Amino acid sequence: MGKGSQLTQLKSAISQAGLAGRPPPSKKRKRTQSKTDQADKDKKAAKLKEIQQKLNPFDVKVTKLKHDVGGRKIKGVMGKPAQSRQAGIEERKHTLLKEYETKNHAGGIVDRRFGENDPSMSLEERMLERFTKERQRTSKGDLFNLEDDGDMELTHYGQSLSKLDDFEDVGLELDEDEEETRGQIDSETVKAVHFGGFEDEDEEGGDGEASLLPPRKKSKAEVMAEVMAKSKEHKYRRQAEKEEDESLRAQLDDDFDSLRSLLYSAPTQPAPADKPVSELLGTSERDAEYDALIRALAFEARAKPKDRTKTEEELALEEKVRLEEKERRRVRRMQGLDSDGSGEEGEGGRRGKKRAGGGDDLEDDFYDEMGAEWGVGGVGKGLREEGVGSASEEEDGGEEASASEEEEKSDEEDEGEWVSDDGTDEDEEVEEGEQEDLVALSKTKSSGKNGKNNSKGDNGKRKELPYTFPAPETHEKFLEIVEDIEDEDVPTVIQRIRTLYHPSLAEGNKFKLQALSNVLIDHILYITSPPDPRFPLLSALLPHLAALTQQYPIPVAEHFRSKLSLMHKNLKRGLSSGSLDPSSKTWPGLPELSLLRVIGLVWPTSDMKHPVVSPARLLMGAYLGLARVRTLADVASGLFLCTLFLQYEARSKRFVPEAVNFAINAVLHLAPSGYKDVKDVPGWFPCLDFQSELCKPLMISHKQVKKLGLEVEKPDLGRMLVGEVLSEQEKVDLLALALDLLGRFAEIYKGIEGFIELYDPILQVLEHIESHRLPQSLKDRLTKSIDMLTRILKFSRQARRPLQLQAHKPIPIPSYVPKFESSSSNYFRNRDPDHERNEAAKLRRQYKQEKKGALRELRKDARFLAGVQQMEQMEKDKRYGQRMKQVFGSIESERAEQKAMEREKKREKKRAEKK
């Protein structure tokens, strides 16, 4: 490159390339210009580009090699940073810039499926429209349908395939003279295709080279022909065997008379010759039965296809229409009008006509007449849950349901478990004042009347239950609905409400069912409130509450938490007024215990953290740990809470010290023992109320037990918690329950580390009980508990091992591979004799390089985005400046006009003064 400025260098390079000094072409030359001139232009452009690259020293960057070896090609020695930088910028414009521009943009996807945005189309219409479009789209491809019976036919080399014979030239010709070889393959085909004739080929004078060639591959037609020939051969063979069997059977039938004469003695009276052999053998009756059975099978009705399975929405809609129709007919019958003929005909033709009564008709055919209505379950798919009976089962089986409910009640009393109550989420503040009820009691219940509803008329007959009911929003409205309905019909009412207001039938039914679930919780608290708790009705309502809870868990959980919060607030109020005050309510009553029991049945109790069960567990622990024992009802309530803890922790087996502590304290309160003071009681569990003035009357009286001859029975916790005067029988029952709970907790907690420290004092307390002052059945139960605890403690002591250091293999002395540097080369310096360390070092180097490259690319992306943002800001500032200039210009022009007007006014004023 010559010296001088870049312009001088450019001129000299152009002149050296022969691109300068040529005059512009004339018009005449332009007309005669040919296509070859285009190639000259391309060469000239290439030369100019080469000159441009040589003039700019920054377009090409060359890395100087330390040791240049001739003939060696190394990548990356020469680079073009400007072009690579421009290529990176262009790539970022197509990728990063597009992503930056659409960063906060919303998507524009439009749902164009048939009928999705058309509210006037039903689901069936949408499916029909889609099916029509699909058939129209697929019908376009029927032109090449091979199964179509059109005029098209397949050809091969211009010949129709339908006219070709698949069995030509395959060696299956039939020899007319030889019938024995019919259906067999001829010998020529066997020699040519099968494994035969290898020795004959050379003898026949064939070429040696041809004999060495591999055998010809069979065509598909030949293979199929061979297969069909073999199948025909097997078929003919089976037919021959069948014919032989038939002939042998016919021969045996002909010779049967001679064989029969050998087997049986001659008859006393000769049989008539005209009777058939089958009649002589006595087989006519069996033949008649066989013929009758064949005729019956011939006239048997064939199976018919059934209707498709209906969806949950369709079943719910049909059930709602059915209940509404029944309600209309019921109202018409109640008003003395004729039943609706259209509805009766729609359900079964002559069903609406009542048969004429006979002389001995007792008018007890109501259920036969309404059987089709009362027999329907009344629930759609999804409404029937486990344990939820159908409407027919609840209506027709009243006596069975009442019997089962009594059994459930007895089982619950045997286990000492009741259903429990809810709490609300409120601020934890100790408020002083009266106790708040969990649910407001109606006037009928609060006035002391019988809480059971009476839905029978004046003549003692049961009133007919309506089929439709309004959806109750509050508990008061629900009480108005079930005011004249008996308890055994309340589940039927709830089931019909759930059916009528299924979520798929209307948009607002979901919220109505959520309100119904809250109403059920309040009603459970209402029916379990004293003085007349109704536990059979509670058992019947529980499946409906469980189904609604599974369907709407969040609203139901909130209502449960609100009730739990109110119970906790009542507990704090009772403790603040005095835990030993008999008037303060510190222990839960029947509604609270019922709610806690329902929580354990509806929600999973084995979770570590649960929004409903965890607060309930904490509340029960607060009752057992903070409340003080004053009466026998407090002991019954506490033992029921211990039973609930046993139910809650049956799977998780979490340790609850409050439950075990209260159970042993109940034993100390009820059982006569040799301990006179709290200091004499072994162990470290607190005994705050032991031998107190309020707890001394709780101890079992030996005289009363011996006088009355009491034995252990099932504890009636419902009567104990109502507040009635309790006798010695209840004390004996509660002591037996406490001993049973201690044994059950021992079975659960026998695997924990501190079981010996926990149950060793309990065993000592049980051994110091004066068993001679107890009934015989209770004495046997105490002895059984002591034996069980002794055995479990023995096994626990045997399984316990002393603490010791962790056993492990001896740690060897570390040995290192010596590092040898045999050369100063970087290649050998970076290599390690240890293969694993070498690979690890290689991965670290690769990671370091990739990290550098990623950081470099991220910095470039950041610079590019910063430049784009700067350009946007500059454009924004430029537009803002232009707007401000326009505004200032308009303001200045207005101000100039204003000043000119003011000057003109001054001049006119001066002129007026001069005049």
Write up this protein.
With 915 residues, the chain is mainly alpha-helical. Among the domains are: 312-344 and 373-440 and 463-607, no CATH class; 628-800, no CATH class; 833-914. The chain has 36 helices and five strands. A two-stranded antiparallel ribbon has the order 1-2. The chain has a two-stranded antiparallel sheet with strand order 3-4. The protein is extended. 20% of the residues are buried. Mean pLDDT is 76; it is low at 170-182, 197-212, 264-273, 341-430 and 446-452. Residues 37-52, 130-140, 301-328, 892-905 have a biased composition (Basic and acidic residues).
Key terms:
mainly alpha, 915 residues, 56% helix, Nop14-like protein, ribosome biogenesis, two-stranded antiparallel ribbon, 1% strand, two-stranded antiparallel sheet
